[in-house]
Write a structure and sequence with these properties.
Elements (H helix, E strand, L loop, with lengths): L12 H4 L1 E5 L5 H12 L2 E4 H8 L1 H10 L9 H5 L4 H24 L7 E4 L5 H4 L9 E6 L1 H10 L1 H4 L8 H26 L2 E5 L5 H11 L1 H4 L1
Parallel strand pairs: 1-3, 1-4, 2-3, 4-5
Helix pairs in contact: 2-11, 6-10
Length: 220
């Protein structure tokens, strides 16, 4: 079986999937988990697979491109650069990483829709798979809510890699995340895909209600 764009979909999983994209720290994973518990649907967490299960594919991809297979020096990635360069490199890398996610999703079979969530499931990449823009929603934090998350979530504020200037690395990462989220919003609006701005005025359960209503036709 293939989708209209010629994309292989042997079990019809991609054509029936629901998608949550957006900015870091908007609550995508939390909302997806709540919907899984409520509705008995399967959730695919892109970030988990991208950071762990896809490492071997990342190394092989670098080798085929004639690039060093080892991870680059952390300072060159997080310190000796600019947020604009980081955002551009991140966005440029999403299409390849998206193909790896599609391979994971193709192998899943369920009698219920599968919900895929993660910042790398970009609107422009997912759009060719959709029979309706309502199968996707983009969640992004306001600047104030992003700052709130950085204050209250240890994992959001953590500098994961050893670098020479942790403060600059953190600033670069936060600004990169903001730029990548802005790009997702612009693209989603151009494609007619709903953008849900998260400002902290609703708790996770209430946000899950909004997302469930959005996906309602496919969850009945």
């Amino acid at each position: 079986m293939t989708l209209d764009g010629g994309i292989a979909d042997p079990f019809g999983t991609l054509g029936r999937a629901l998608w949550i994209c957006g900015g870091q720290w908007a609550g995508k994973s939390t909302v997806s988990r709540l919907l899984a518990y409520r509705l008995g649907i399967t959730v695919y967490h892109y970030d988990f697979h991208d950071a762990r299960a896809h490492q071997d594919r990342r190394v092989a991809h670098r080798g085929r491109k004639g690039l060093p297979v080892a991870d680059p020096d952390p300072d060159s990635v997080w310190v000796d650069t600019t947020p604009e360069r980081m955002a551009a490199d991140t966005i440029a890398g999403f299409p390849t990483r998206f193909e790896w996610a599609l391979d994971d999703l193709r192998a899943l079979v369920s009698g219920r829709p599968i919900l895929a969530e993660g910042w790398g499931l970009r609107p422009e990449l997912v759009a060719p798979l959709l029979d309706s823009p309502r199968r996707m929603i983009v969640m992004v934090p306001t600047d104030d809510f992003r700052e709130h998350q950085l204050r209250v979530l240890p994992r959001a504020a953590a500098v994961v890699h050893r670098v020479s200037d942790p403060e600059r690395a953190q600033h670069n990462r936060i600004e990169r995340d903001r730029l990548v989220a802005e790009d997702a919003v612009r693209t989603a609006k151009g494609l007619g895909i709903r953008v849900l701005e998260i400002d902290g005025s609703r708790d996770a359960e209430a946000v899950a209600d909004v997302v469930a209503e959005h996906f309602g036709p496919y969850l009945a």
